[in-house]
Amino acid sequence: MNALLSSLIALTVASATVFSAQAQDVQGNAKAAEGKIAMCIGCHGIKGYQASFPEVYRVPMISGQNAKYIASALNAYKKGDRKHPTMRGIAASLSDQDIADVAAYYSQHGVVEGAAPVVAKAADDKVAELLKKGACVSCHGENFSKPVDPSYPKIAGQHKDFLFVALKSYKTENQATWGRANGIMGGVAKQFSNNELKALAGYVSSLDGELKTVPQSKFR
């Protein structure tokens, strides 16, 4: 890992620690979120549901995701660091308490107590080199399901088309409605061609993971 990437990771971990300390003042209530997730269900509560902007891809599985990551992502949309118009509009409508409640809800949603731990399968030589170049395990963990900090996402088993679109979004600059501003991920993604990002997304998606889509109805 180069020195610049090491420094960026150290700074982001420090920032995440500050964020976590501040966020502890707002405790998430999963039960309270049951009345706040109507806007989430329409996409994330339908298996195989596809978004169409800026291209067609399956929306991410978020049930079982880390609460601190969900909160961090929603706040990034709210601040404009993530520019997807639909998610920005939804996040802007949420208070800090709403975000904490929704994050708590989805972190517990569909989780099976006592489930077997996730074990990563070996990557082929080409992908292994790409993973090493991107230092992916330094944040997302050896099995890509136990991040080194809970403000980072679990990504094992996530939809490969979503992972590819998300990775490309970190390379996007100077666009009003698309892209993600993140120092670490921007530095990582820009090292790779889109074909290499697609190979990384395919490998991570092929792993067993804890993420899932749990079918939900707006009318229950």
Major sheet characteristics: 2 strands, antiparallel
Specify the number of helices: 10
Task: Supply Rg.
Answer: 17 Å
How many separate structural domains?
1
Q: Which stretches of 5+ consecutive residues score pLDDT under 50?
A: 15-21
CATH architecture: Orthogonal Bundle
Text of the CATH class: Mainly Alpha
Beta strand %? under 5%
Structural class category = mainly alpha
Kindly state the number of beta strands: 2
How far do the termini sit from each other? 49 Å
Helix content: 40-55%
Short description:
The chain is mainly alpha-helical. The chain has ten helices and two strands.
Polypeptide structure, described:
The chain is mostly helical. 48% of the residues lie in helices and 2% in strands. The protein is built from 10 helices and 2 strands, in the order H-H-E-E-H-H-H-H-H-H-H-H. Strands 1-2 form a two-stranded antiparallel ribbon. Helix 1 (3-23) packs antiparallel against helix 9, helix 3 crosses helix 4 (85-92) and helix 8 packs across helix 10. The longest helix has 21 residues, at 3-23. It is globular and about 45 Å long. The relative contact order is 0.19.
